Amino acid sequence: MSGFIDHRSRSQDLFNAMGSMYAATLFLGVQNSSSVQPVVAVERTVFCRERAARMYSAIPYAFGQVVIEIPYVFVQAAFYGIIVYAMIGFEWTTAKFFWYFFIMYFTLLYFTFYSMMTMAVTPNQNVASIVAAFFYAVWNLLSGFIDARPKQHIPIRWRWYYWACPVAWTLYGLVASQFGDLQNKLSDDENVQQFLGRYFGFEHDFLGVVAAIIVAWPVIFAFMFALAIKAFNFQKR
């Protein structure tokens, strides 16, 4: 598998690498979400009962639910990052590995917290799964990978959603951090950095902004989870 990374002489090599990162991101993210929803569903039922007895309050409960996921996802991202980074054959530099781990960690976090949020704003797990699946499909469609030229091919009225799509920022960060500074010449006499900037609009110098936004997504979803837990009570007497 590492061959297409070691020999970046064609644009297709970049598409292959991009596809491997994107598929793994979406698969792991959805898997995280699917595994969290039933746990939150059961614990929310217990929480609503105990809150009615004035044993718990919403914000400390939500805070505990969010915090307990942080080390778990960290371990998951560490195992995944080390194994997959070596298998795919990315360049072994401290900076590039840090970027890969950083982006994957917060990506898995926002998928997890997004799933918790959908569970908190819906009456049961079945509805939460439907709501979550709808947005997974939209994220997949408008993330910039399916059409391969996001800004050019996405209709203007939907182009704003490309920038509001968490997976689009993950893809931007992964590709730009690994390949955005490469000067390797492609077969069309254009180097990798120039190709990514022209074709995808990915700029290595924009990574700081990308990192800030990727960190913001799990914070937003965790905050909305806490608000929903406090505001909604679907428990039937």
Offer a quick outline of the entry.
With 237 residues, the protein is mainly alpha-helical. It is built from 10 helices and no strands. It is elongated.
Structure notes:
The protein has one domain (8-231). The chain has 237 residues and is mostly helical. Helices cover 76% and strands 0% of the residues.
Topology readout:
Elements (H helix, E strand, L loop, with lengths): L2 H4 L4 H42 L5 H31 L5 H27 L4 H18 L7 H4 L2 H8 L2 H14 L12 H8 L7 H25 L6
Radius of gyration: 20 Å
% residues in beta strands: under 5%
What assembly state would you assign to the polypeptide chains in this entry? single chain
Give the SSE string: HHHHHHHHHH
Largest sheet: none
Discrete helix count: 10
Low-confidence stretches: 1-7
Structural class: mainly alpha
Mean pLDDT: 84
What's the number of extended β-strand segments? 0
Total tally of structural domains: 1
Gross morphology is elongated
The percent range for helix content is: over 70%
- End-to-end separation in angstroms reads 56 Å
